[in-house]
Structures are given as structure tokens and as C-alpha cells.
Amino acid sequence: MKTRIKINEAPISYDGPERMSPDIQKSIEDKDTPFSDNPALDIDIDDDGTVSTFEELIASKRFKDVVEKVKRYTGLTNIPQGMNGLQQLMMMMAQAVQTVKSIENENKEYLENLAVDLVKKEMSLPENAFQFDVELTSGMGQVDTSKLPKKSQEPSEEDVLEKFGVSEDDAEDDIDNFMKAFEKFDLEKAKRRFINSLIQGASKKGHYMFNLVEEELNRIDPRLLNLYGVLMSINDLLYWIMPEQMMNMMGETGQGVEGTEEVDDKTDPPTIKVKGLFFPILIHELLKGVYEVLGTQGLPDDPKAAEMVMMSQDTLPYEMWDLRLGPVIWERFLASYPDELFEDDLKEIQNYLFSRFSSLSTEEFFQVAREIMGKTPAGKRIVKRMVDEIIEELKKYDYEDAISSNDEDEEDDDDFRNFLGDLGIDLS
After folding, report:
1. How many CA atoms lie within 13 A of 80 on its CB side?
2. What is the DSSP string of 98-151?
3. Which residues pair with 271 in a beta bridge?
4. How open is the CA angle 76-80-84, to the nearest 5 degrees?
């Protein structure tokens, strides 16, 4: 049985006077978020006693990180609080928007190409891996949100039984089949939720990758770097200080959406189509598109079952929670990587690793995810094992073959299961 840290103070930990919106804090403390009860986050924490759950731990860390970035780029010593403070920050953001767009509109094509080149370089993408269709929009309201799911759509009981039901040999009766079908569906949804958090967490770094092309941006206008920092840091903070009801309403209506991403898998190679209001948003959406492709290995093989999972989890309101908590979840995922994966000649292995991890069965996926999130030695050994397997595969296959060869045969699955058992991870 899991034990939790007993506390005598507020579960959410703060370093200064800044506070997240009370309703967002309450949702986290009451375990009323899309991440609540996710098996990947059901781990013990070793903290200083100021938080009681892993969800509270990562929320506390992320909020502190966001606050520090706002102070860094705006020069504010203390961030104004309450609705008046929210209005001040939004006015500051609006002023930055006006200046940025006046600069970007004169350099639209250059910035679009720069965003693509930066993502390809940082992710070590081969030239033939993807096609890109990129548009830096000229102003607000030009991002089409009609295709973005605003609410979760749950399938009928009949569809769940059809796609996730077990065989007669595996079920004692109809009730048992019913329960097992919904259990399998719930695990697939939880897996998709966690993968989505990783995708958004990985993509969120794109908001600040403009620092990697400082020289190019300074040639356009030396003001851009700090202006981007102001825009992106305040934008991140709004996810925490704006009342949740207001954010949910914006998510359901598509208001305030600054970028979109779509993958056209009918082209060869796949085409990643993105639109963004600012250069950093373009980078974010491009990264998201690449990771979306890599993460498709985590969906059920049956197209209808995969669609059911995505319709349930891939919504704008849920995405807001991915944006809040995903960056810290991604940091922990990165912390499990062997050091050599950050070297230029092996950086591309990170892409295969993400795809390989996503392809694990739900049982293996959550066991491994808990080890990684818990920063255990076993977690690092598991990741090292997967990296070694990928490198061996790459010695035998070209890029295109390797990226699609994540379906392991029964012998490979048994080997991996035995390996986990050697680490003390019981899948029975």
C-alpha cells in the first residue's frame, strides 16, 4: 500500500507572495484534474514535507519556474496579484504583442524558415523525415480553431465492449467482460493522457528556443529576444493565475488560441502543418507535430479504438493541464536519459526512444513511467536498455525502417518483461 507524506501546512509550496488561482490550486489538492489517479504518477515522493502528492510536487515546481521567468523578462520584483494584477500583466503582454507583430510582419518568410531549420537541427531530423507547411499569422483571430476538439467525447458502452472487450475464455461472464473492457479503455486513456503531457512538455521548450538563434534575431531587431521572453513568460503564467472557469471557457470556445498543429499522414513523408501568432509559437507547434507522429505508437492498433481514445483525451481544456504540468513531467523524463544522448551525434536517438517508450503495452508503460517519474536507478537502467536496443536496431535498418519498427514480437516482449523482473518490477 502506498504511503503519503503527512503534512501540517498547505500542500502547494510557494517561495514568495505569488499565488496560483485558488480554484486551480483546489483542483490539484482535491485530485480533480485530468492527471488525478493516473497510474504513471502514482508514486511515493521524497520531499521536504511541504507537499503530499506527486501532482502537488510538480505543480509547485512548475509555478515557481514560471514566476521566475516572468520576473527575469519583465524586470518585476513582485508580480501583481488578483484581478488588477491579471489586467496589468495582460496589458503588458498586449503592448509586447503590438511591437512584436510590427517587426515580424516585415520578416514573415525568414522567420517561418528559421523556425523549421531550428527544429530540424535541434531534433536531428533527417531531410526526408517530414514535410513542413508553416504560416506565421499576421494578427490575432487568424488561427482556425474549428478542428480543435473543445470537449471530451466518450464512446458508447457498445463501442467500448466491441473494441476493448476480452475473449470468452478470458471473461467469466458478461459482467466480467464489461468490467475488463472499461478497465482496458481507461488504461489506454490514461496512457494517452501521459503521452500528451510529454508531448506538450517537450514542445513547451520551444517557447524559449528563440535564445538559440540570438544572432539571427538580433539582426532583425535587438528588441525581439526580450519581447519574446515577456510574451511567453506571461503567457505561461496566465495558465496558473487566470480562474479555471475562464480558462475552460476559452478552451471550449477556442478563444486565445495562438497556434495550431495538424499532421497530414497521407503524404509521403508526413506533412506537419502549423500556424502560429509568434515565432516562438511556431517552434512550439512544430515540435508538437513531430512528437505527435512519434507518439502515435502509443495508440491502440485498431483505428477505431485509437480514435475513441483520442476523442476522449485530445481536447483544449485537457491541453491546458498538459501545458501546466507537462514541462516538469518532461524534465523528469529527460533526466532518465543517458548522458550520451545529449551529444550531437546521438541526439536523434531521443526520437526513437520516445517512440519506443510510447509503444510499450499499458502494463509495461505505467511500470516504466513510475520508475522514470520517481527518478529511480531502475528507471535509468530501463531507459539505458531501450537505448541500447535502439542503437542495435539502427545498425540493421535505415531511418524509415527503424522509426516504424516499434512493434516487438513475443520473444522481445518476454525478454523485456524478464529484464524488468530482474530490476524488481513485477508485472504479474
Report:
1. 12
2. HHHHHHHTTSHHHHHHHHHHHHHHHTT--TTS-EEEEEE-SSTT-S--TTS--S
3. 131, 264
4. 140
In terms of Cβ atoms closer than 10 Å to its own Cβ (0-12, 13-18, 19+), residue 304 is exposed
**CA-CA distance, 281 to 275, in Å (whole number)?**
8
Q: Which of 251, 210, 202 is nearest to 229 (CA)?
A: 210
Helix (H) or strand (E) holding 318: helix 316-335
Mean pLDDT, the chain cut into blocks of 10 residues (428 residues total) = 38 88 93 93 69 86 95 91 87 93 95 96 90 87 65 88 74 74 94 97 91 96 96 94 80 70 90 94 95 92 94 89 95 95 90 94 95 94 94 72 54 59 50
Q: Which cell numbers hold the place of 290?
A: 513531430
Distance between CA atoms of residues 112 and 123, nearest Å: 17
Hey, what's the torsion of the CAs at 268, 272, 273, 279, to 10 degrees?
-140
What single DSSP character describes residue 8?
A: S
What is the signed CA dihedral for 315, 317, 321, 327, rounded to 10 degrees?
60
Name the one residue in this structure whose C-alpha cell is 478563444: 255
- Between CA 194 and CA 358 the distance in angstroms is 10
Q: Which residues pair with 133 in a beta bridge?
A: 273
- How many Cα atoms sit within 13 Å of 58 on the Cβ side? 26
259-264 and 271-276 beta bridge pairing: antiparallel
Angstrom distances, CA of residue 292 to CA of 115, 198, 263, 354: 18, 10, 8, 10
* Type of residue found at 268: D
Grid cell for residue 276? 502560429
Residue with cell 509586447: 96
To the nearest 10°, report the CA torsion of 125, 131, 136, 141: -120
- DSSP H or E stretch at residue 210: none
Question: Which of 291, 269, 282 is CA-nearest to residue 209?
Answer: 282
| Amino acid code (one letter) for 57 | L
Q: How many CA atoms lie within 13 A of 336 on its CB side?
A: 29
Cβ contact 201:328 at 8 Å: yes
Full-model pTM = 0.87
284, 203 contact by CB (below 8 A) = yes
Within its chain, how far is the Cα of 21 from the centroid?
Answer: 22
